[in-house]
Amino acid sequence: MPTIASAAHALGDVTASDSMLRRFLHGLPGVDAVGLEARAASLGTRSIKTTAKAYAIDLAISMVDLTTLEGADTPGKVRALGAKAVHPDPTDRTTPTTAAVCVYPDMVAVAKEAVAGSGVKVASVATAFPAGRAALDVKLADVRDAVAAGADEIDMVIDRGAFLAGHYMKVYDEIVAVKEASGAARLKVIFETGELSTYDNIRRASWLGMLAGADFIKTSTGKVAVNATPANTLLMLEAVRDFRAQTGIQVGVKPAGGIRTTKDAIKFLVLVNETAGEDWLDNHWFRFGASSLLNDLLMQRQKLATGRYSGPDYVTVD
Amino acid sequence: MASAFEYAPAPESRSVVDIAPSYGLFIDGEFTEAADGKVFKTVSPSTEEVLSEVAQAGTEDVDRAVKAARKAFEKWSALPGSERAKYLFRIARIIQERSRELAVLETLDNGKPIKETRDADLPLVAAHFFYYAGWADKLDHAGFGANPRPLGVAGQVIPWNFPLLMLAWKIAPALATGNTVVLKPAETTPLSALFFADICRQAGLPKGVVNILPGYGDTGAALVEHPDVNKVAFTGSTAVGKAIARQVAGTSKKVTLELGGKGANIVFDDAPIDQAVEGVVSGIFFNQGQVCCAGSRLLVQESIQDELLDSLKRRLSTLRLGDPLDKNTDIGAINSAEQLSRITSLVEQGEAEGAERWSPACELPSSGYWFAPTLFTNVTQAHTIARDEIFGPVLSVLTFRTPDEAVAKANNSQYGLSAGIWTEKGSRILAVASKLRAGVIWSNTFNKFDPTSPFGGYKESGFGREGGRHGLEAYLDV
Amino acid sequence: MSEKSEKIERLSVFKTYKLYVGGKFPRSESGRVYEVTDSKSNWLANAPLASRKDARDAVVAARKAFGGWSGATAYNRGQILYRIAEMLEGRKDQFVREVADAEGLSKSKAAAVVDAAIDRWVWYAGWTDKIAQVVGGGNPVAGPFFNLSTPEPTGVVVVLAPQESSFLGLVSVIAPVIATGNTAIVVASEKSPLPALSLGEVLATSDLPGGVVNVLSGRTAEIAAPLAAHQDVNAIDLAGADDVLAKELEIAAADNLKRVLRPQPVDYSATPGIERLTAFLETKTVWHPTGSLGASGSSY
């Protein structure tokens, strides 16, 4: 497996200094917004039917990071979530489990217990989620806390303020530090694309995150107005595709926030399939950060199995 | 593309369109047989299935149609513009209502993917009628002086690549300005024009205002030559365009010609690469490359040639070729056996002249007319495939070193219809665009069409403009 | 011997009329001339009888000049057209004489024609930087794109000058062609080429780059045939052709799809419309995506 050091080698040590990093990121090809969105829209017209749809629904279920990130989260709520992740559809045991549950650090231990033995991972947002406005020490403590509680995956947020101020090295160093603090846990780096605002920024952030050792790049916290969109996810899929081509390192992608329907989820899978390719069609490399999406996937799954439309009373409330 | 995620067939339902076993000519508001009783068959290029048998107009029929149009002209041109407008609005609306049916029909008769007829052809057809409808009562304000007069009877000959859209480009401005028309659709794609005749009837359009004469080249020539035709509008090959220009010499017939092209798609090293790749792909593979404004020459800056070609090849490998009615099909059938053999022979010539041919792994259906997306590298200006219009899914890749060289190579063509520029540098776009000798320049995009925007060529790509305010001029005595 | 002082009338200096090609004044490559007479058949001068080769040279000169002239600012072209009017004003007497001779007009009528011709240059001088605004503009595209249609010169234009109106007609067909940035090869009135050849001298001293206007004299049909068929000519104004010649030339012009302006009755004394300006313009539409400021939108 290629390492971060080899990535740096392949790219000529672009992270050696702030100015070199800046030059590299600003030297990435620009993004034409209209063209990008048109491509995403065009892929959105793919018609996924019958067997392909069944495959896509199960794949999508298996890619869900079933998420609760509320101030009002309680152990009871998290246990219920864990149970649902393990058995999304109690009436049909052939339903795949979700990829993970995603909770705040203080709920990791509860979640871990709830999914024990199922293969479902526990992901935890850390680094002063969602704003990320805290001292580095505090963020790292947050991360260590989650890891110590058993988190398999850490979802960190980048310092958007530093990014927008042009302090790329600061963002980079912070990701590297969090990566180190995460230990064996896989690191998802959230850019909060809605705040980075431009596609050029999203492409730069993607490369910055990958150079710093991200295992996943993730669009959003789900806490701002604009979260995952087909276009920004397409752009990030292009980034991981190109990064692997240049460094040999494969990085995952996680759109999060705003994906609520099966139709939407399938569109994202089409983006994966036709952009990064089938190597990413696996929950090790692609995730959906979502909560209500799962029930829609389950209802659609039931519809495919029975031929009749399901209703909300036939899936479990979260 | 071998993937775990295989898309199941998603065919659009053929039952939305009811194709009759035979069709007549549409003259003076009635479907009628050809005077000499001749008919020809129209086939589905993707299966070679015969779709219908269509009356073939001869000289006598042309004369009858022109007479009907002449008779109708008097009243039609005297109608208040606001009334003509309402007829056109009606037509636009009926097209919108029947767009699914027409999309399927067009896909069957032409072979192009339903994705394109549904998302490009039909919406543009309706938009074109809607746009020109609004002009009918505003001609005084169009910049041609007060009360500009129509020309009379327009003889219009259209190609097979966008049958209904080309019909719209011809008929909408002609009717808006008060002309009446006799239109000849291409012999391989007569059906949508005949369905349009039915739409005219549904709209209550007065008899004789629109006449449709299916037929071959000789029908078109008879129409162009008819002494009582005042206006000739032709879209098609440059060779036929030249013949028409000779035919009308010494007459008072006003002519507009939309002919061939060999569009250069210029990609600079600072281009938005992923979008450029998409633009190059849609530039040459949209409608199987059977587009006069196709970006059939890729001019890539030498410094990024490898990177761009890798991306392009990867992207081509994801194109889905097959049943045009499948909603996931990107590449449909070639329109006819004749066109297929023309493409094949030019591609063979490209190989014979030493260019390097590449196609993605791609299984072609066993019946019908098919050609795999093809890319040629090691092409120079001297190669036939860099000069002649192939009118198929074949891209010739050439390189350049500097903007000057890019412009010189782009302009080094008998044609001048379209060009593309890909760069993130605004001043370069403006500088290059101003130097390119072509009628439509797409910067950081390609193959975009809009009824408000004039379209047409420089040099041997023809003359006159279709679309927009400019498109009115072709049908007015100004 | 006594000397008788006899008053000798001064012998005037004749002008040798020459072609105007590429900013220079060559004799015809053929070395041939033809007699030009006034309306009463009195000999006026020998005019060069331009050959196919002169026509070919003129095309080369016009093509060479096209890049610079079409690339000049419209303001600059306007200034130069106005300069032509200024130069003509200073040489008015000469043109009045030549026009009077050529067209059999009284001096006062010829003066009116020359005045009108000068004013016509002024009229077109003002058009250079306005025509794009009149016939071009932005188009409201239904989508995230901006596009702009602008007129551009067609290229190298052959102009068969009117046979009768040797100066006002001549100016009326040249000025609109070059006002928009085209370059021209002008075939002078066959019968009355002298005002056209003299105009070349004015153009040469008006800051007009060499090759923008090239003036040939001779047999219209002979010179026009190779020009109409020339593959590096983009357009032809048939004003000076009769119906038979016009048809032949239009057929020849189809070989490379030249833009053809057919002969039509024109009252050159009336204010022209913009028809002659737009006849040799192409419309170029340039597109660019616009899109939103940020990546906040979703495609669907």
TrEMBL record, chain A:
Keywords from the UniProt entry: Lyase, Schiff base
GO molecular-function terms, A-Z: deoxyribose-phosphate aldolase activity
One GO process term, biological-process aspect: carbohydrate catabolic process
Record InterPro entries: Aldolase_TIM, DeoC, DeoC/FbaB/LacD_aldolase
GO cellular component, one term: cytoplasm
Enzyme class: lyase
Pathway assigned in UniProt: Carbohydrate degradation; 2-deoxy-D-ribose 1-phosphate degradation; D-glyceraldehyde 3-phosphate and acetaldehyde from 2-deoxy-alpha-D-ribose 1-phosphate: step 2/2
Highest taxon of the lineage: Bacteria
One Pfam family per UniProt: DeoC
Gene3D superfamilies attached to this UniProt entry: Aldolase class I (3.20.20.70)
Reaction equations catalysed: 2-deoxy-D-ribose 5-phosphate = D-glyceraldehyde 3-phosphate + acetaldehyde
Enzyme Commission number: 4.1.2.4
Family: Belongs to the DeoC/FbaB aldolase family. DeoC type 2 subfamily.
Protein name listed in UniProt: Deoxyribose-phosphate aldolase
Species of provenance: Streptomyces albiflavescens
UniProtKB/TrEMBL annotation, chain B:
Family annotation (Pfam families): Aldedh (PF00171)
Gene3D superfamilies: Aldehyde Dehydrogenase, Chain A, domain 1, Aldehyde Dehydrogenase, Chain A, domain 2
InterPro entries according to UniProt: Ald_DH/histidinol_DH (IPR016161), Ald_DH_C (IPR016163), Ald_DH_CS_CYS (IPR016160), Ald_DH_N (IPR016162), Aldehyde_DH_dom (IPR015590)
Highest rank taxon of the organism: Bacteria
Keyword annotations of the record: Oxidoreductase
One GO molecular-function entry: oxidoreductase activity, acting on the aldehyde or oxo group of donors, NAD or NADP as acceptor
Oxidoreductase is among the record's keywords: yes
Keyword Oxidoreductase among UniProt keywords: yes
Ranges of residues in domain Aldehyde dehydrogenase: 32-477
SUPFAM superfamilies, A to Z: ALDH-like
Alphabetized PANTHER family for the sequence: ALDEHYDE DEHYDROGENASE-RELATED
Family: Belongs to the aldehyde dehydrogenase family.
Protein name in UniProt: Aldehyde dehydrogenase
The species this protein was found in: Streptomyces albiflavescens
TrEMBL record, chain C:
GO molecular function: oxidoreductase activity
Span of domain Aldehyde dehydrogenase: 31-260
InterPro entries noted in UniProt: Ald_DH/histidinol_DH, Ald_DH_N, Aldehyde_DH_dom
Keyword Amino-acid biosynthesis attached: no
Pfam short name (any one): Aldedh
Gene3D superfamilies: Aldehyde Dehydrogenase, Chain A, domain 1 (3.40.605.10)
Domain of life: Bacteria
Protein name per the record: Aldehyde dehydrogenase
Organism: Streptomyces albiflavescens
